[in-house]
Specification:
alpha/beta, globular
Length: 195
């Protein structure tokens, strides 16, 4: 599939180790090399700001989407290609989803996890057919990956829906998987009541 814009969810912090920032820069370089625009949360701090600055420095396009209530709290980035200021967090997430052809989560906190889980859930429910993935930098997501395997084993998540969430440790491999992505057509409700 042709990827024009990728939405990247990541922290407004840079994290504990330099490898998180280094990998964010690497993802930015790969996006620019492949002529893929960045859609992100619109802030100038943490991994969010680093991603935006790195894509812009490489000559790429960056679209930020941020709610009015967070413009001052997250220190809005004023040097972007496009900036959308929304009235609510719900409007922010919906617009980011509309603008992107796929979704990547870098290491981040509660907001990052909530955002990737929401768009993955939307894919599971058939609201979109776009790829979702984790860039597993420095094994950050290993505990989450283990838990998701447990959810499959306990029959709360179907294996095909689990496999919708692509996990790779390098930007190149993750985007290669995105470009080859074939949407899953297994209904969430098929045999949902089977005991």
């Amino acid at each position: 599939m042709k990827l024009k814009n990728i939405c990247v969810y990541c922290g407004s912090s840079s994290g504990r180790v330099d490898l998180y920032a280094q990998s964010a820069r690497e993802l930015a370089v790969v996006l620019v090399d492949r002529n893929i625009g960045l859609v992100y949360g619109g802030a100038s701090v943490g991994l969010m700001g680093l991603m935006a600055d790195s894509v812009l420095a490489g000559g790429g396009k960056v679209t930020g989407v941020i709610p009015q209530s967070m413009v001052e709290k997250e220190i809005v980035h004023n040097g972007l290609t496009n900036l959308h200021i929304t009235q609510s967090m719900h409007e922010r997430k919906a617009l980011m989803s509309e603008l992107a052809d796929g979704f990547i989560a870098l290491p981040g906190g509660i907001g990052t996890l909530e955002e990737i889980f929401e768009v993955w859930n939307w894919a599971e429910l058939g609201y979109h057919q776009k790829p979702c993935g984790l860039l597993n930098i420095a094994n950050y997501f290993d505990g989450l990956i283990g838990f998701l395997e447990h959810a499959v084993a306990e029959k709360f998540v179907k294996r095909p829906h689990h496999e919708m969430l692509i996990v790779e440790s390098t930007p190149e491999r993750l985007l290669d998987c995105f470009e080859k992505y074939i949407p899953v057509s297994v209904s969430k409700w098929a045999h949902a009541h089977k005991i």
